[in-house]
Design goal:
CATH topology of the largest domain: Rossmann fold
Strand content: 15-25%
CATH architecture of the largest domain: 3-Layer(aba) Sandwich
Shape: globular
Bound molecules: NADPH dihydro-nicotinamide-adenine-dinucleotide phosphate
Number of domains: 2
Order of helices and strands: EHEHEHEHEEHEHEHEEHEHEHH
Distance between the termini: 40 Å
Length: 302
């Protein structure tokens, strides 16, 4: 069986009175790290839904084949993670307004011969900020760092949440120019990081990562913000969150809640009900901490 091949356990709905097991998967490269199976199975437990949610690895160039094999094998829908969100967009017959605005898709619904695509990343971010963190976005000034796929996904929902000012700052001018040409809904794109504030919210949508040194953003900009939000998540505060807190920012959060939030919206699309995110967020946070402790213990063993 090749990578991504998929075999259902049996014909769906074969037992009278028992709902068939619906099958979902996340497709990515790499994908072994994905927390989506844990999240969707935890949501399913809240409703007593019967589902299976797996990980499907697709080598570069094989996304369409993996997707077709999963559909042919009885898959009901899929999430898509890096680096296939744009390929997923191109594979869809129908796209939601959110997907159109982002030019990328992370949630697929298989509806007969039709593939429908949506992008739930942005609403996941908005719901995490407004719900878990309690910061209402209406009227706020927001600075987004980075102009890649994640940035494209969050701009529309941030605008719809009523942000008064939405500005993107990116390291390289070329990508900033592409964003400006493709996506509307923000005030300005700047090919530099040091932006004059004040900003109520600073969102790090770069992939600078755990190994990154401080991003070139003025400490006064971070100090004045009500919230610094890093789309990346980790067991420990990320470099951007440490930078923001050291500068004096009042509140800082990583993107674990966004991850749970985007999954909750995908769950609503697939199953018609909205799961409770708080216990799943808490469970994931605890898992991350446990894994970090286990890693630290293993690396300290002689
Ligand atoms: P992309 O590769 O599409 O874009 C990366 C962006 O980061 C570019 O704008 C790039 O700038 C910038 N960048 C990378 N390194 C640096 C650096 N050292 N200094 C300054 N800028 C840098 O990535 P994505 O947009 O897909 O992902 C961004 C982040 O968001 C990732 O960490 C990803 O894991 C996270 N994410 C989290 C989600 C969640 O649910 N929590 C969902 C989706 C994404 P340039 O154009 O100059 O190269």
């Amino acid at each position: 069986m090749g990578a991504g091949a998929y075999t259902p356990d049996g014909p769906p709905g074969s037992l009278p009175g028992i709902a068939p097991v619906r099958r979902f998967a996340v497709i990515g490269h790499p994908v072994s790290h994905s927390r989506s199976p844990f999240i969707h199975e935890a949501f399913a437990a809240q409703f007593g839904h019967r589902l299976r949610y797996g990980r499907l690895h697709a080598a570069p160039g094989s996304f369409r084949d993996v997707l077709s094999a999963f559909r042919a094998g009885g898959g009901a829908g899929a999430n898509v993670t890096q680096p296939f969100k744009v390929e997923a967009f191109e594979a869809c017959d129908r796209k939601s307004a959110r997907a159109q605005a982002a030019g990328a898709v992370n949630t697929l619904v298989f509806n007969g011969d039709t593939i429908e695509g949506d992008n739930t990343d942005g609403i996941g971010l908005v719901n995490d900020i407004e719900g878990r963190l309690g910061l209402k976005l209406a009227g706020l000034s927001v600075l987004v760092l980075g102009a890649g796929g994640a940035c494209r996904g969050v701009l529309g929902p941030l605008r719809e949440a009523g942000c008064a000012r939405l500005v993107v700052a990116n390291r390289s001018p070329a990508r900033a120019a592409d964003l400006k040409a493709d996506v509307c809904g923000f005030e300005e794109v700047a090919a530099r990081f040091c932006r004059d504030g004040p900003w109520d919210l600073v969102v790090n949508a770069t992939s600078a990562g755990l190994a990154a040194r401080d991003l070139p953003i003025d400490a006064r900009v971070l100090a004045a913000a009500q919230l610094a939000y890093d789309l990346m998540y980790a067991a420990q505060p990320t470099p951007f969150l440490r930078q923001a807190l050291e500068a004096g920012c009042r509140q800082a959060s990583d993107g674990l809640g966004m991850l749970v939030g985007q999954a909750a919206e995908a769950y609503r699309i697939w199953h018609g009900v909205s799961p409770c995110t708080a216990p799943v967020y808490a469970g994931l946070r605890a898992s991350l901490s446990r894994e970090a402790q286990d890693d630290a213990a293993a690396s300290s063993r002689p």
